[in-house]
Specification:
- The complex is a heterodimer of chains A (216) and B (240).
- Chain A has a single domain (8-213), classed as Orthogonal Bundle (MetI-like fold).
- The radius of gyration of chain A is 21 Å and the shape is flat.
- The longest helix of chain A has 43 residues, at 8-50.
- Helices cover 82% and strands 0% of the residues of chain A.
- Chain A is mainly α and 216 residues long.
- Chain B has one domain (28-47, 69-239): P-loop containing nucleotide triphosphate hydrolases (Rossmann fold), CATH 3.40.50.
- Chain B has helices spanning 40-47, 72-76, 94-104, 110-123, 139-151, 169-184, 196-202, 220-225, 230-239, and strands at 2-11, 14-24, 29-34, 55-60, 63-64, 79-82, 157-161, 188-192, 205-210, 213-218.
- Chain B has a six-stranded mixed β-sheet with strand order 6-7-8-3-9-10, with helices on both faces. Chain B has a four-stranded antiparallel β-sheet with strand order 2-1-4-5, with helices on one face.
- The chains are: A mainly alpha (216), B alpha/beta (240).
- The interface between A and B is medium-sized, with 21 and 28 residues.
């Protein structure tokens, strides 16, 4: 039915690209989320006045297009002679980009926990940390989860931009094949299907957790 | 014994407590009545150390609540407080709500905490609701759960801050019955309330607060029967 020059080796090449996409996403989302939680808690604790410098920096990461951030970061690391590999630079930039969004998600989640509920926890003798760990964290997570899943899927797709630093991830791998085989339709269809296969379980996991937690 | 000595407290330019002096003895049931904004709820949150004070001091069994050296979390396990809002932890079942603080703050084992929680919940009439999530219960049941949750810490004093004010009228009775039961068991209690009949029944003494001042304090028969303070006379006339 299809007359194609695409070989099994080419498919393997695409899957390698997909692995790179997964690696960059996994590292960035993990690091970005950890940072986002820390920044979100800090912003909540110190209030808008003392949190202003942090907010400003995070706003920069949210407003400047990711592509520009990647190119600038790569240039700076070269000027500063840091000797970062493209993978490292990509992960650093994407982590901060994720952290900037995640901070807002975390802050909103914490703010959604009624102060009266937290006061009740403290009145029972629980420390700030125990209140955070046993009351705020579970309640805020439930509120934040849909936005966080959205962020993760967004970062996964945005990670395609790291091809500008020379990383061969899924999209770049597809481009290479398109150039060589001149079969853009088929290859981009496969590329899109792989993106979908990566996203789908993450989205479903979110749906599953939401359902499991909806006890009220 | 809770000793409140010349306590002052302001929110911004508004002084809500203007030098309160009050001593509550072990085993005593004190109710505080007064209009809204009279400072009565603020006083309770100050006793618990949830609010800082501007002057004076509060001693609980000789420990100064607002001293820097005081371990507030330790002191709070002695002072149970129940609020107007029920403040259930919505992600935990009724049993888990009551077990959490004894396990994490007092360090009880899971078995011990569970045994104790079941005892307290049965005591307030919620023995059938252990595995239920609080949002599935009525306001009265949630408030009784909050009382059991405070009692599970084995407090020596219980502070009740208008615990029936957010309830539908038909649910007030079950919560007041729980308070009556605690009073009859000899629990030391300070209740801020708008339920005059209840205050009259259970109190050893009743205090009337007006605009940040404790205008009158007396045994219930005297305070309700022969009020001296003109503001109290007005207040009682308006509430009857």
């Amino acid at each position: 039915m299809f007359n194609t020059a695409l070989t099994l080796a080419d498919l393997g090449f695409l899957l390698q690209g997909a692995l790179m996409t997964l690696a960059v996403t996994a590292v960035s989302v993990t690091a970005g989320t950890v940072l986002g939680i820390i920044f979100g808690v800090v912003r909540n604790q110190v209030g808008p006045y003392w949190g202003a410098p942090l907010t400003f920096v995070l706003d920069v990461f949210r407003s400047v297009p990711l592509l520009i951030q990647l190119v600038l970061a790569n240039a700076f690391q070269a000027i500063a002679k840091l000797g970062w590999a493209p993978f490292t630079t990509s992960c650093v930039v994407l982590s901060l980009y994720t952290a900037a969004y995640c901070t807002e998600i975390v802050r909103g989640g914490i703010a959604s926990v009624p102060p009266t509920t937290r006061r009740a926890a403290r009145s029972l003798g629980m420390t700030w940390w125990q209140d955070m760990r046993y009351i705020v964290a579970p309640l805020a997570t439930r509120v934040s989860l849909p936005s966080w899943i959205g962020l993760t899927l967004g970062v996964m797709k945005d990670s395609a931009l790291v091809l500008w630093l020379g990383l061969i991830e899924l999209l770049r791998a597809s481009q290479v094949l398109v150039t060589r085989l001149q079969e853009p339709l088929l290859i981009l269809l496969i590329c899109g299907a792989i993106y979908f296969l990566i996203s789908f379980p993450i989205a479903r996991l979110g749906g599953y957790l939401e359902k499991r937690w909806s006890n009220d | 014994m809770i000793e409140i000595q010349n306590v002052r407290k302001s929110f911004g330019s508004l002084e809500v407590l203007k030098g309160i002096d009050l001593t509550v003895n072990k085993g005593e049931v004190l109710t505080i009545i007064g209009g809204s904004g009279s400072g009565k709820s603020t006083l309770l949150t100050c006793i618990n150390g949830l609010e800082p004070i501007d002057a004076g001091r509060i001693l609980v069994d000789g420990t100064e609540v607002h001293a820097k050296s005081t371990n507030l979390n330790k002191l709070r396990s002695k002072l149970g407080i129940v609020f107007q809002q029920f403040n259930a932890f919505p992600h935990l079942t009724v049993l888990e709500n009551v077990m959490l603080a004894p396990r994490k703050v007092l360090g009880l084992t899971k078995e011990k905490a569970e045994e104790n929680a079941i005892k307290q919940l049965t005591h307030v009439g919620l023995g059938e609701k252990l595995g239920v999530y609080p949002t599935r219960m009525s306001g009265g049941q949630q408030q009784r759960m909050a009382i059991a949750r405070a009692l599970a810490m084995s407090p020596e004093y219980m502070l009740f801050d208008e615990v029936t004010s957010a309830l539908d009228p038909q649910l007030v009775g079950e919560v007041l019955d729980t308070l009556r039961m605690l009073a009859s068991e000899g629990m030391t209690m300070i209740c801020v309330t708008h339920e005059m009949k209840f205050a009259r029944e259970v109190s050893d003494r009743v205090a009337f607060f007006h605009k940040g001042v404790m205008a009158e304090i007396a045994a219930p028969e005297a305070l309700f029967g022969a009020p001296k303070d003109p503001e109290l006379q007005k207040f009682l006339a308006a509430t009857h």
